[in-house]
Amino acid sequence: xxxxxxIGIDLGTTYSCLAFIDDEGDxxxxxxxxxxxTTPSVILFNENGEIIVGSPAKDMAIMYxxxxxVTAIKRQIxxxxxxxxxxxxxxxxxxxxxxxxxxxxxxxDNHGVEVRKAVITCPxxxxxxxxxxxxxxxxxxxxxxxxIINEPTAAAISFGFGAGGEGRKRVMVYDLGGGTFDVTxxxxxxxxxxxxxxxxERLLGGKDWDQALTKIIKQKVCEENDIGEAELEDDDDVKQxxxxxxxxxxxxxxxxxxxxxxxxxxxxxxxYTITRAEFEAATAPLMQxxxxxxxxxxxxxxxxxxxxxxxxxxxxxxxxxxxKNGISQKYPDANVRVFDPDQSIAKGAAIxxxxxxxxxxxxxxxxxxxxxxxxxxxxxxxxxxxxxKSFGIKAMYDDKEMVSNIIFRNExxxxxxxxxxFPIEDGQTSIKVEIYENSAVNNDGGKRIExxxxxxxxxFEMDLPEGVTRNTPITVKFVATDEGILVSHVDxxxxxxxxxxxxxxxxxxxxxxxxxxxxEKVTKAND
Length: 527
Ligand code: AMP
Description:
Elements: E1 7-10, E2 15-21, E3 27-29, E4 39-40, E5 43-45, E6 51-53, H1 55-60, E7 69-70, E8 83-85, E9 88-90, H2 92-111, E10 117-122, H3 128-140, E11 145-150, H4 151-163, E12 168-176, E13 181-189, E14 192-201, H5 206-225, H6 229-233, H7 236-252, E15 258-265, E16 268-275, H8 276-299, E17 310-314, H9 321-330, E18 336-338, H10 344-354, H11 361-369, E19 382-384, E20 390-397, E21 400-407, E22 415-421, E23 430-438, E24 448-450, E25 455-463, E26 474-480, E27 486-492, E28 495-500, H12 509-516
Parallel strand pairs: 1-10, 10-11, 12-17, 14-19, 17-18
Antiparallel strand pairs: 1-2, 2-3, 2-4, 5-6, 5-7, 8-9, 12-13, 13-14, 15-16, 20-21, 20-23, 21-24, 22-26, 23-25, 26-27, 27-28
The protein binds adenosine monophosphate (AMP).
């Protein structure tokens, strides 16, 4: 049976969520087989060669060796991380695909369909490699057509959906999830969503609050039960329990001012009490980091908070009262609200899926890239992005190697920019162009940054014409398309070189096909 459903998937670091558009045209979250709205992004390889995903994996994790349990794989996407289980190799792509497969299996089962296309979300700061990897994960999971949109854009689409289409609004999406944090400013005009600025911290999320809480729990357990710290450190069961307990206690403290917990140490139950105030004091520096990033995001465009109509808080961790309170305290006039924190991204992705011109996606990209006006179809949602990373080349400045940025993070796509360089010596015969990616923004400090702040994403050699001197200009033009694909053009006198940044982790069609076999191992509800 062909699939009529419009599906959006929020593939999260700690939890994932699938939404679809129901018969009334409203976005709803699909419950998984375990009857939950969100699926823990946890994968377990059991001894029977099965791949178990979600709560059963999370619950059983404690009984398995660490190498059979994979968590937070999203943090590895786009890297060459691999796990080897019983002779099979898994990459972040195939592991992410397993999570997607489980959610799609559950949906198919429940609706008697075979889903073939979906919109999957990714963080705004993902570079092209991570985006491609996410898209490929969708393909490995068996999807034929995958569109990637940014999580904050999806949240804003969901927010705009209820608000009606009229007028122009500027919203800030504050997304504090399980493993990542970002802030994005978007302009919404009818059904056109344009990201204006985005900033974030890849390694900041609920997990860090859990860790802070783990420390407090350990302290309390020791103080209140006369137990030595060393006793806790030596006990593997204690370590495992603390991981799960800290998250549970944290969630409780979102509604209760104080809570009790128990921890079994050396066969004995130790009771402890923790207050929200203690938890908030211990995590104040984490909260402060998010406030600093809001400030940075505003400053990158010369905005102040009064330029923002609504601040919407999404991501499970924005349920912690300290988040809304912290922001409201710093910005008393801001219109701050927690907005459907676990589901808005998946729902926004589903709304986008239903209002996306699937067949015309290339036409849209081509029109945007050539600067032509694209006329959307009736009701179509269009999304414009900013560049998620700055790109430059390695160049010598006063005998020092630096990265000289050519196009910048937060510039609206598509972007074309040229800078001029000079050979180091007369009669130089070739140059090596090394392209670096980094997070600098376009202010005076952003133009050149130390090499150490970026990482090399590609390089090529180019012959120089005969007779160049130190005064012969070499122009380097970077073109970033609306899809974020980067092409560099280098010109020196009569010589022209062109180079498209390659994605080293790209999988070929046959590799995707081969990997699809692994998906057979993802357990199904009715197996
Ligand atoms: P997400 O990645 O958006 O699904 O967010 C998941 C994170 O939100 C995890 O770290 C959860 O522990 C956290 N979270 C979920 N519910 C709550 C809650 N009620 N209070 C505090 N944190 C929560």
